[in-house]
Write a structure and sequence with these properties.
Shape: elongated
Oligomer: single chain
Largest sheet: 4 strands, antiparallel
Number of domains: 1
Strand content: 35-45%
Number of helices: 2
Number of strands: 6
């Protein structure tokens, strides 16, 4: 099992969620977060300078079986892509154990009712 965490543009969240659903990933968590990348920007509006270095993003987290890893990553890559700096990052970690509290199921069986 793998845990996938992705930081994406807020404007791409619905596209990513839809792509993950099409890749059979229906269980995920997300948070509104702020971040700062390597690009340093400033904005001047009506003579007032604004710092736009902190950027609103969405942090997505979910656990998948190893067989669903590549299609999950590809779904995020294709749907979050704009080609501009700041498209985000994907992180993959190994999950040693998963237990469904309600049933006591362990491992892959604890993730979903139907094996996909």
């Amino acid at each position: 099992m793998k845990k996938i965490e992705a930081i994406i543009r807020k404007t791409k969240f619905e596209d990513v969620r839809k792509a993950l659903h099409e890749a059979d990933i229906d269980f995920l968590s997300w948070w509104d977060v702020k971040g700062q990348g390597t690009a340093k920007q400033g904005l001047i509006f009506r003579g007032v300078a604004y710092d736009v270095n902190t950027i609103d993003r969405i942090f997505i987290s979910f656990v998948v079986r190893d067989v669903n890893l590549e299609k999950s990553i590809n779904a995020i890559l294709k749907s979050a892509y704009t080609g501009e700096s700041g498209d985000g990052r994907i992180f993959v970690e190994t999950v040693e154990q998963s237990i469904r509290i309600r049933t006591g199921d362990h491992g892959d069986d604890s993730l979903y009712d139907i094996k996909k």
